[in-house]
Amino acid sequence: MILEELSRRIAKKIKKYDPEGPGSLEVLGYGIGIKLNLYSGILLTVLFGLLFSSVLHSLLALASFMVLRKFSGGYHLPITLCSLVTGLTASLVPLISLGQEGTILLTALSLLIALAFAPNNYEELYNVEFDSWSKGISVLIIASNLYFQSAIVAVSFMIQSLLLLPTYPRKGGVNL
Where are the transmembrane segments (predicted)? Predict the structure, then answer.
């Protein structure tokens, strides 16, 4: 994929000029890939948001998704695909119309899923130092939308919560 290859090339260049630098080529490439994923996701969200005339709402969808994901974990696509899907999804979320009842329902469903499955770290490399607090923080983040009642945030939280479900393959093909 494009971003994976780009991160490998950048890592090789860095290692070429600083072979004794910290981290292996793989670790460096992984870290660069994570940054490229973040920046590409934001850029694509803005571009797709412009296309659908909802840049600020798209950025709200992206931010709420990312904040919850930081604490709840969840399934992760390959970097390039993740950036594309995230950017497109974040810009489509504001186009979904929910009433107050729908917003509360999606928020409540997200809350139940997070209570049952957060944190769910599909990537063995990623382990948060405050892992024991992650479920509580995730639940509080979602519960905050019961106060704000944002349809955009409710849909974003629901999408992220679905990525917590243990229906996605883990590394090595084992589901828990």
Answer: 42-68, 74-96, 103-119, 139-165
From CA 22, how far away is CA 14, in angstroms rounded? 11
* 3-class secondary structure, 109: helix
- Which residues are CB-contacts of 121 (< 8 A; sequence separation ≥ 6)? 73, 127, 128, 131
Show me where the domains of the chain are located.
Answer: 2-170
The Cα 124–Cα 33 span in angstroms is: 16
**56-69: pLDDT as tens digits:** 999 999 999 999 99
Token pair for 139: 């639940």
For residue 131 the two structure tokens come to 């892992």
Tens digit of pLDDT for each residue in 124-134?
A: 545 555 677 99
15 within 8 A of 21, measured Cβ to Cβ: yes
CA dist 114 and 108 (Å) reads 10
pLDDT in tens, 76-96: 899 999 999 999 999 999 999
